[in-house]
Structure formats: C-alpha cells, structure tokens
Predict the 3D structure of the following.
Amino acid sequence: MSGADTQVRHGNDEAVDVSDPRLSRFDLVREGARRDGVEIVHYAPRFPVPGTKAEKRVERTIALFFMLTGLFATAFVVIFVAWHWEWHPGNNAGSWFTPLLGVSLALMLFCVGAAIIVFAKKLLPEEVAVQERHDGASPRDEQVLTGATLLNMADEAGLGRRPLLKGAIALGLAPVAAVPLVALGGMIDDPHDEDMYHKTGFDPEANGGNKVRLMRENLTPVRPEEISAGGQITVFPAIPHGATNQHADSPTLLIHLRQTDADELRRNLGHVPINEGDMYGNYVAYSKICTHAGCPASLYEQQTNRLLCPCHQSQFSITDNARPVFGPATRRLPMLPLEVDSEGFFVAKSDFEVPIGPGFWERA
Amino acid sequence: MKRRKLDLAALPAKSAEEVDARLTVATPLRRLLNKVFPDHWSFLLGEIALYSFIVLLLSGTYLALFFDPSMEEVVYDGAYSPLRGIGMSRAFESALELSFEVRGGLFMRQMHHWAALLFMAAIVVHMFRVFFTGAFRKPRELNWIIGSLLFWIGFLAGFTGYGLPDDALSGTGLRIAHAIMLSIPVIGSWVASSFFGGEFPGTVIVPRMYIAHVLLIPGVLLGLISAHMGLLVKQKHTQWPGPGRTNDNVVGVRMFPGFAAKAGGFFMIVFAVIALMAGLFQINPIWIFGPYQAATVSSASQPDWYVMFLDGSTRLMPPWEIRLFGYTLPPLFWPTVALPGVLTMLPLLYPFIEARFLKDNQAHHLLQRPRDVPTRTALGAMAVAFWAVLTLSGGNDVIAEQFHISLNAMTWAGRIGLIVVPPLAYYIAYRVCLALQQHDREVLAHGVETGIIKRLPDGGFVEIHQPLAPLDAHGHPEPLEYLGAPVPKKMNRLGALLPTVRGFFYPIEKPAPPVRLDQPSEAPVSPAPARSEITTGS
C-alpha cells in the first residue's frame, strides 16, 4: 500500500515547523493532513516523466472535451434562440425543438463532466489517504460534565419545590398548544353539513323540488328511443354545471338492455329491494362512480354484460343489479330510479337511494 | 501621496487572510478539504439521488414561473388546436401553455418529470445498497431512518406534482386518493372533505397541493437531505473490507481535489442523462390525456412507477368489507393505508430488530458482502419480490392486453404470487448466498482455476489450480482465512496477463516485447512450452 515513491513517516507525531523554507508545498499539504488525522500513504504522479506522448494525449483529450462543451453550449443557445419552435400540427420544425434542446444540452453537460472526470482520473496524482475514525461515545468525563450542565438548569429552575410555578406553567401553556390546532381547524370541513356523500346532482330538492332530467355531455336531454338496444350513454343531471367536475359524483351510465338481458335484470331486481321499480322499460341507469375507489366504471363488455372499472378492474354484472363479480369492489353500483316526463325525456324519479362511490366509515 | 500599487499576485492570499481574520475558518476548511472518502461504484447511487434533486429544484423553479394552480373553469383557446373549445381548469390550461407557448417549456416539464423518476429510482437503489451491505447498522441507524423517510416524502412530492396539471390521469389519481382518505376508519369522511374543502374535486385541492409541492415538501426534503449529508460527514462513510482497511479508519482519496472533481464531473453526467431523456423521451403528454373529467377514464391508467406497487396492492385486494354496528371499513383501507403504514414502520425498525436478534451492539464501519449475511440478503430478496409482484400487478391490465392473458387470471396470479413468490425468493437467495460462500472458501483453499488441463499418466484429466497462498513444506498451499473481501477467481485478477497496449491508431507506449518461446516471458504465466514431435522413442 505504501508506495516507494514517497517517504512515509509512520507514527511521526512531531509538529513540523511550517515556516521552515526547506519544506515543499506538498510537505505542507502532508503536514496539514496529518494534523487533520489523515495520513497520505501513497501519492504518485500519473506521469512521472513530464511531457511524454501519453501525457500529451491525455491533455489533448481533456482539451477536446472542453472545446466540445463550448461547441454544444453554443449550439444550445442558437437552437433556443433561433429555431422555429412553435407548435403546429404534423411533423415540422417545431417537433424537433425539444429533442434538439435535449441533445445539445446533454452533450454539453456530458462533455464538461467527461473533461472533469478524465482530468481527475488521469492527471491528478494517484492517491491513497487513510483517515482515523474517532467515533463512538464521548469520554465518560465529557458525558458527566454535559449531563451536569443540563441537570443544573433543572435544579435551578426548582420546579420540584415550586409547585405553584409547575401548575401555572402547565395551565398557562396548554391553551397555547391549542392555538395552532384551532388555526389549522379552518381547514376542517364538515362532510355532513350538506350530507355531500349522500347527495348528487340528481337530488330534486336542490332543483327546486323538480325532478332532474338526464342529459348528455353536450347538454341535450335524452329520449328513450334515442338509444338503441344494447347501447349505452353517459348521462349527467340537467342542472347548471351538471356535466362538469362540480358534480363529479353524478355521472351515470344509461343502458338500453336487450330484451333477454332486461328480463333477466327484472327477475333479479328483487335481490335488492331498494332497486324495485327503478327500471324504465328495458332501460336501467347505474352510477358510473366505482364503489371501490371512485374511478368511472365505464368499460362496457357487451359479451358478458359486465361493467369494468379500468383503475383496479372491479367488474359489475349489469343484469344483476350491478353486483360486483370480480376485483376489489364490494358494493353494487347504485341504481338511479328512472322515469319519463310529460315531454318524453328521461328524468330521475329521485336521487340515488344509497350513497354513490367509495365506501366510508359512517356509510352503513 | 504615494499611490499604493495593487499587487495582483498577492491578492488571493491577502483576501484569504482577511476572510480568516473575521471567520477563523482556516482549520475547519482544511479539515473538510482533507476529509477522506472511500471509493466504490455503489457509493455513487446516493449521489445520483442528490443530483437529481438539484435538477428538480432548478427545473421546478422554472416551471413555477409559468404555472397557475387555479381550478377556475376556462375554455381553451391556445396554440394546441385539437383541444380548442374544450372546457378545462386554468391549471390544465397553464400546463398546456407551458408545453406549447413557452419557449423550452416542454423541455423543462419533461426534465422535471424525468428527474423526479430518477430521484425516486436512485433513492430505491441506494437503499438496496445500504440494506444489502449492512451500512445501516450502528452507528448509522438514524441516517437509515432519515433515508427511509426521504423515500416517502419523495413519494408525496411526486404524487402532489403528478396531481397539479389536472389532466385526466392526475384527476383519476386524485379521485383514488380521495377514496383512500375516505376509507380511513372513524375520521375518513372528515379527512377527505377537509383536504378537498368539501366535495370531490372542489376548487381548493390543486392550490393546496401546489403550496405543498413547491414549499412544504421541498422544505422538508431539503432539511432531511441536509441532515442526511451532515450525518454522513459526521459519521464518515462506510468502506468495503480490503488491505489496510479496518473498522477504525477510512481509506480513500481526500475530498479536495480528487473526490470533489470526480463528484462534480459525475453531477454533470447525471444532469446530462436527465437532459437527454427530457429531450428525446416524451413523458406525461397531458395534451393527449386531455383535461380531467369525472366521467371519463381510459384503460392503462398507470401512476408513476414508484406508486405502482400501491396500485397493484389495491388491485389484488380481495373484496373483503367489514361492516359492524352500522359502520363500514372498506377494503381499500388495507392495501392503501394499512400496508404503507407497515411498509414505513418495518424498514425504520429493521436496524434495531436485526441488532436485537443478533445481540450485536458493536459499531460497524466495514460493509458486508451480501453473501456473507444470507439471512438478511434473503429477507431483502423477499421484500424485493413482494414489491415486484405488487408493481407488476399495478400494470396487470397492460400485461394482460399485450400478452393476451385474461385480466382476471392476472389478478389471481398476483394474489397467489404475492404469497408464493416472496418465500421462494427467500429460499433461492439464501441458497445462492451459501453457494457463493462455499466457492469463495474453495478458491481460498485450492487456488484459482487456470483453465490449463493436465493429462495424468493414467489417462485422467485434472485442471491445474493456481494457489493463492505460498506452499508449505509438503507442497500444499497454506490455508487462507476469508476476510470479507472479494476473492480473486480469475487469473487476470492475479495479474496473469500483460497490460494492454494503449493507443487508438498506433501504440503510444512501447508495446510489450513479443513472446519468445525459448525465453522466459514477462508475463507471470508462461505460455505452453514448444511442442516437440512425439516419437516412438526408439
């Protein structure tokens, strides 16, 4: 480990006189390291004979990397400033702006990094230094003295023999702790204030007591004959902002079942008493919000009559009151009671009769 | 008055003296410059995380100059024509502006996202390194805890950032986060409505995530990273066992100039890789996802990779809902609240559990090779396998689609795999460790395989081994003790070959002399002797 190229003074703890003019700069380095508990045991130049072909070659490599750094930095600046960068449809100059920025910046950074690393590995002297660890617990004396310093403070405060202070501090500071809590309390929002988890945009009460129509995303109301058998559309409550995220709990899937499927669902309707009478003819509407984690359970498998939620793959059987048949969901998708108003448009007889969406503690 | 001549050559020394006269900094500065760092490639992994974090701070600050975290509803009328006329939140609109109407904005966005992915990846791989080599042992338990917390805070940073643009994917992620909050027993509905300021999604969640993402979380990250590095400096780095290396020293190069130069260069390389990915590889193309709408979702909605294991655990969870006394505990609670809780606490406590189990109260500064601690390595392999099954399950719909496998079969494979694969990984890792240990001992006892086959007089063949120790009086190698350092297993490692000739087009140094069979070679291993014709010997 110790190279023959340097004279290593093992175990020499005598301080060197740093003003001694005979000391070389490296002698000073070694002395500084020694005082820091670091022994430089091996320190050898990479090129003992200066000016060899090999050394020149390394110099040229590093110089090349620095020159390339400048070149790519300039390229980045020119591209950033002068390139036609605006987005236009199709493949054009704008499509190349981001890739060119990335490539030029990456090459610039790579070249400067490579230059520094080659410099460090090929030109800086080869070095092995050993530093002593001085870890572990402090000397016992130190521990005792620090402990005494801390405990002395408690003695002087003398809370043990000043019970009045003790009580006063406890009583005085306890309410202080409540101050930030109360201040944060401004964030607290009572979920049962308007019972937000039990109501959706289809609630007639919020619509002046009128039953809420079903509408498409383009705000048009829906007539039964507009959906062919086997077809399904996403509907929203026909109220202001009904199709926006302001009513994120309201999206509903309106399905026109084929005759055989409708018959099957009618037979199964009795399994869930609350759903009785919620179908309109062969039409049924289920909440689109998955009862597992709230994603839209909207992938309709016509072959199996299942609704699939793409987030966690819960599957619901359309012909059996949207019973969860696979995946992590435990509850049926709630059914929206359907009827048709005097103008022949779908309306919700009432709001969903059970809370839509994911489960929570108070939901029985 | 005589004008004093400014001595430029003496200026640095003079200013240094002036600074030192005020700050008394000479000794501590030199101590820092002389700090010794051991060298090994695996020590660079944590540096990658650190450098990615710096890139995150820089690129994130740039993005914040343009991004508007507002949930106000607007109709898009910007440069990206396919989305014109579509209603969206102001946050999504400004993210689109950043991508299409700010020069270099898309590059910065992609750089920020790639840096975040790399940050988390580097943290995870760095953690593997620390775990499998036993670097977390006393006295470094506290730094291990800080590191584990950094993963989770980084996770939060990633999630809040992912949610900001309010695109279809981030809204879906938020919706699931809302459901996760709802699933917490007793206080769930209160937690959810308090975070979202009422119903999902409301209008305050994006601004709230924004302030968390740009101030609170980076502040915590910065504090924890500073503590992490401070402890590293204070406790000094661990090192691999090797010649001259003991539990009481650090062998390596001093920080200045060797280590600092290499680390600075490495920062540039890491930055270069991020910049290259940001330029060439599209990430989070929000204009393709579109704005978040509660009624729409596409299949293959995957979160960023470091969240996928929780998505996977959610998918695998059987539909077990607990209903008691009119209250509900949704199944979502177990994979998304209980599991992360366990996954946070178990690693935090692991150093203490292991020390307790091994009755080991010593301070350790020398690393262990994973093979030498089979139980820990096997436990780690088990944890990695558990995580891998969950992460794969987080993309099981994509796997099912790409490989034409039934989706339900994928789910069941994940459920069964989660129980079967980790113990299997434990067993395999344990056996591999033992086998590697045994091979190390064999090489120490018998030497390195030379690849030279000798035919014995009786016709049998044996391979000649190069002993690692000097021979004793009977011609047998002296026994060598295994010291926890790699054992050379190839003749190259023993310097059996001449060094390669350097130079690209022509040699820049004197090439090694050609091998002459009638003279001893310079190479420690001589070539085979010249063949002489086999004769009958008559």
